[in-house]
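Supplementary notes for students who missed Thursday's class. We covered one full example, reproduced here. Read the sequence, then the structure, then the short commentary at the end.
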Amino acid sequence: MTKVKLTLINNSSVKLILSQFTDPDSYVTLQTKVLSLPFVVMAIQLPSSSSSSSSLSNDFTYDVFISFRGTDTRFGFTGHLYKALSDKGFHTFIDDKDLPGGDEITPSLWKSIEDSRIAIIVFSKNYATSSFCLDELVHIIHYFKAKGRLVLPIFYDVEPSQVRHQNDYYGEALAKHEEGFQNNKENMERLLKWKKALNQAANLSGHHFNLGYPSSF
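Structure (token representation):
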């Protein structure tokens, strides 16, 4: 497991992030969580100054694209992750609105995905209830694999196996999607793509954040 240095995020930034977590654990435990997240590991590998990180985007519009379920983590984990990345000078894309489940991804969002250097996928309990999130995931996995870019999955209060095998929360969500598709051939093919992308993403090296001690694998 990669060792992280406290100097990657200064003390005031850590305290600000920790103060916004609604978690019963102690400050020390929360500090351990924040400092061992993938964005910190990524920061080790990238220039730490704003001027240097700005140069990373010469060939990309964004350094990082975050895929997440807004109702689960927008005002908690993902919000803090976005702020921490931005504070480090990384140009990060985060969708600023929650779209209804049936809405389609716009061309501009496709482009934002394709113009990003790294993708972070925050899998949470309700991620798979959104067809929007699942379509987004399929495009990220397909495009980033073809381009040889980095995808970092974060499993936030869900088990990687639930995503990999689509059981529990993920199995229930996909079953509801399938029921709504009513054997429509096009949508059933779409469902198969979702399942494949979930399995592929869950098999990537990532981070499990279970509201206890975080772990990388």
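Commentary. The radius of gyration is 17 Å. The chain has eleven helices and six strands. If anything here is unclear, bring it to office hours.
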